[in-house]
C-alpha cells in the first residue's frame, strides 16, 4: 500500500492496470452504502445521538484533533460525550471485544490515536472493530454519556448517525480523484454532498465549508511532561524531527513556521517505532507529534520533545452540530 501512495496524487501508466480495480471498488462501495441506507442490511440505532467524524480518503486529514475539539465544545455546552474508535493494530493481535482505553495503555494494544485521545482525559474512549458494540459497551459502563463521537466512522454504516462531519486535507485534497487502489479515495467526492459539514484542514474553505487549522508552539519533554519549553529554546541546536502520521509534511512545515531548522524523518502512518528509529547520535533534541510520542514513550530519552497541537475551527460548526443533536 505504501508504494501505491506515490501514485495517488498523479496519473501514471500504472493506472491502466489499477483503474479496473478502482472501478470495481467504487461499485462495491456504492452497493454497500445502498444496502445499509435502504434498510436491506440492518443498522443499529443508539439511545443517544451519534456524531461521526471521518473522511473519504485514506491517510491523515486531521480527524483526531477535530474529534477532540468537538468533545471539548460539547462539554462546554453541557453534554457528556464518549468517543469510540476501531483501534488501529488491535485485529492483528487478536483483540476483537470492545475495550476501554486508559492513558497508561500500550499503543500496540489499543492503537496510537485512541491512546492519544485517552491521554487528553476529556471523556471516556472505547475501541472495538464492531462500532455499535463498542458504543453500547461505552454507554453501559458510562451511563452519564449522552452523546457518542465516532472517530473515523464515515464508512461504518452499521452504526446509524445523527450528524456526519467530513475532514478534507486542504493541501492534498483528493489526490488524483480516483478510488482505491488507483487513488486515495474510499468513496467518491460526491459523497460529501450527503454529509452535514465539510471541514477543510489547512486550506481555504469554500462556501458552506468550515475552516480548520492546527496550532501549537510549546513542546513538553516526553520523559518529564511537566517540563515545557517554547520553540525558541531550541535555537542553535541540532534538531531531528520524526513523523509517523498520514501527512508528515504538515508537521515538518509547522516546525518550519515556528522558525526551527530540523532534519526531517518521515515514517509510514501508524509506524511501530523502535529505539533505533530515534537513535540520532548528533541530535541535541528530537521533535515529534503526540501520535509518535505514545509509541516512543517506553524507550524515550531526555532528548525527546513533543509538540502538542490543538484544532481551531470555525465556531459556527459547534452551533450546527448542537442543532443536529438537540431534540
Note down, in words, how this protein is organized.
By secondary structure, the chain is of the alpha/beta class. The protein folds into two domains: 2-212, Rossmann fold (3-Layer(aba) Sandwich); 217-308. 28% of the residues lie in helices and 21% in strands. The chain has nine helices and 15 strands. The strands form two sheets. A nine-stranded mixed sheet has the order 3-4-2-5-1-6-7-8-15, sandwiched between helices. A six-stranded mixed sheet has the order 10-9-14-13-11-12. α5 packs across α8. The longest helix is centred in the first third of the chain and has 23 residues, at 15-37. The radius of gyration is 20 Å and the shape is globular. It holds the Pfam family LpxK.
Q: Helix and strand layout, with pairings?
A:
Layout: H1 2-5, H2 15-37, E1 50-54, H3 63-76, E2 81-85, E3 99-100, H4 107-110, H5 112-120, E4 125-127, H6 131-141, E5 147-151, E6 163-169, E7 197-201, E8 210-215, E9 218-221, E10 228-230, E11 239-243, H7 248-257, E12 262-266, E13 285-289, H8 290-296, E14 304-307, E15 310-313, H9 316-325
Parallel strand pairs: 1-5, 1-6, 2-4, 2-5, 6-7, 7-8, 11-12, 11-13, 13-14
Antiparallel strand pairs: 3-4, 8-15, 9-10, 9-14
Helix pairs in contact: 5-8
Mean pLDDT: 93
Number of strands: 15
DSSP helix fraction:
25-40%
Architecture of the largest domain in CATH? 3-Layer(aba) Sandwich
Low-confidence stretches: none
Described by strand count, sense and barrel closure, the largest sheet is: 9 strands, mixed
The tally of domains stands at 2
N to C succession of SSEs? HHEHEEHHEHEEEEEEEHEEHEEH
Radius of gyration computed on alpha carbons: 20 Å
Question: In order across it, which strands form the biggest sheet?
Answer: 3-4-2-5-1-6-7-8-15
CATH topology of the largest domain: Rossmann fold
Give the terminus-to-terminus CA distance: 43 Å
What is the count of DSSP helices, taking H or I runs of 4+ residues?
Answer: 9
Q: How does the overall form come out from the CA principal axes?
A: globular
Amino acid at each position: 500500500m505504501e508504494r501505491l501512495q506515490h501514485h495517488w496524487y498523479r496519473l501514471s501508466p500504472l493506472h491502466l492496470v489499477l483503474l479496473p480495480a478502482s472501478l470495481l471498488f467504487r461499485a462495491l462501495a456504492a452497493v454497500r452504502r445502498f444496502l445499509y441506507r435502504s434498510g436491506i442490511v440492518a443498522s443499529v440505532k443508539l439511545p443517544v445521538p451519534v456524531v461521526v467524524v471521518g473522511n473519504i480518503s485514506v491517510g491523515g486529514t486531521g480527524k483526531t484533533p477535530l474529534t477532540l475539539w468537538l468533545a471539548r465544545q460539547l462539554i462546554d455546552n453541557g453534554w457528556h460525550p464518549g468517543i469510540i474508535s476501531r483501534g488501529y493494530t488491535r485485529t492483528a493481535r487478536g483483540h476483537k471485544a470492545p475495550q476501554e482505553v486508559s492513558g497508561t495503555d500500550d499503543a500496540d494494544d489499543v492503537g496510537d490515536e485512541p491512546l492519544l485521545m485517552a491521554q487528553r482525559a476529556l471523556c471516556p474512549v472505547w475501541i472495538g472493530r464492531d462500532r455499535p458494540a463498542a458504543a453500547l459497551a461505552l454507554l453501559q459502563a458510562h451511563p452519564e454519556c449522552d452523546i457518542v463521537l465516532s472517530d473515523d466512522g464515515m464508512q461504518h454504516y452499521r452504526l446509524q448517525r445523527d450528524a456526519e462531519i467530513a475532514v478534507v486535507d486542504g493541501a492534498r485534497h483528493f489526490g488524483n480523484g480516483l478510488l482505491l487502489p488507483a487513488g486515495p479515495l474510499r468513496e467518491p467526492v460526491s459523497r460529501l454532498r450527503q454529509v452535514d459539514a465539510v471541514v477543510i484542514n489547512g486550506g481555504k474553505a469554500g462556501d458552506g465549508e468550515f475552516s480548520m487549522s492546527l496550532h501549537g508552539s510549546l513542546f513538553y519533554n516526553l520523559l518529564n511532561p511537566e517540563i515545557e519549553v517554547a520553540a525558541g529554546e531550541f535555537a542553535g541546536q541540532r534538531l531531528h524531527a520524526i513523523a509517523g502520521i498520514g501527512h508528515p509534511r504538515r508537521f515538518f512545515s509547522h516546525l518550519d513556521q515556528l522558525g526551527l531548522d530540523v532534519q526531517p524523518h518521515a515514517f509510514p502512518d501508524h509506524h511501530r517505532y523502535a529505539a533505533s528509529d530515534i537513535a540520532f547520535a548528533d541530535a541535541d533534541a528530537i521533535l515529534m507529534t503526540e501520535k509518535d510520542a505514545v509509541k516512543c514513550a517506553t524507550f524515550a530519552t531526555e532528548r525527546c520533545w513533543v509538540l502538542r497541537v490543538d484544532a481551531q475551527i470555525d465556531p459556527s460548526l459547534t452551533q450546527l452540530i448542537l442543532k443536529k443533536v438537540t431534540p
